[in-house]
Specification:
alpha+beta; two-stranded antiparallel sheet; 17% strand
Length: 46
């Protein structure tokens, strides 16, 4: 797999996370030690 393909896949995953956050959803993301959860704190549906 080329790095261009990886970049496109990463961009697609980021866009999916943004859409989820905008619609009041949650996203999970890895850190160095544990997984974190993210949400839009200003969205009452979150």
């Amino acid at each position: 797999m080329s790095s261009d393909s990886s970049s496109l896949q990463s961009a697609a995953v980021i866009q999916e996370a943004v859409q989820s956050l905008r619609s009041g959803g949650l996203v999970a993301f890895p850190t160095e030690t544990v997984y974190g959860l993210g949400a839009d704190a200003k969205n009452p549906e979150a």
